[in-house]
Amino acid sequence: MRAIAGVFALSFLIVSGLPTTHAAAADHKISDFYGAYTGQSISLKGEGLSARDLSVQIKPNHQGFNLSWTTVTHKKGSSAVRKSYSIDFSKSPRKNMWGSAVRRDAFGNMQPINPLQKGDLFVWATLKGDTLTVYALIITTSGGYELQTYARSLTADGMRLTFTRLRDGERLKAITGVLVKKK
After folding, report:
1. CATH of the domain at 168
2. In terms of residue numbers, what domain contains 137?
C-alpha cells in the first residue's frame, strides 16, 4: 500500500513540475503574430462551402497593430470573388485587448463607430495563449445580432484560422484554414 501511495506522490510531483502547453502559450505577445501568411480554407463536410484562398498580414502601427486579410472564394461556373479588409486596432486599458473605435467616412475622415447605425461593426481583438481572436458584432435591422469570430492560432509553420458566424445564437457558417508564414 505504501508503495502505491509513493508512486502516486512521485507521479504528482513529476507532473506538477512539468510546464504545460497552456502556460507556455500564455507567454505570446501580439508581436509574435506580426508577418504575412497565406493558405487555403478547409471545407467542412455538409457545409456546402466553396474553396477559398486566404491571406493575412499583421503589423504594428503607432497605437497597436493593423490586421489586413483577403479571401478569394472560388465557385464552380463563375469567376472568383475577392474581399479584402483592413482594421487598425488600438490598445485598450484591459490587458491583451484591443479595440477598433473609429472608421473612415467617404472623405477619409475618422469617425466614431456607432453599432446602432446601419452597417457599423463593433470590432475588438483579444489575445489568449497562442490565439488572437477578432470579434465583429453587427446589430441587425430587426434588433438582433450577428457575431463573426476569427480565431487565429499560431502553429509551427504559421497559423490556423477558425471562422464562425452566428446570428441570434444560431451558427450560420464555420470555416477553418491553415496558413503558412511567409519568410
Report:
1. 2.40.128.20
2. 28-181
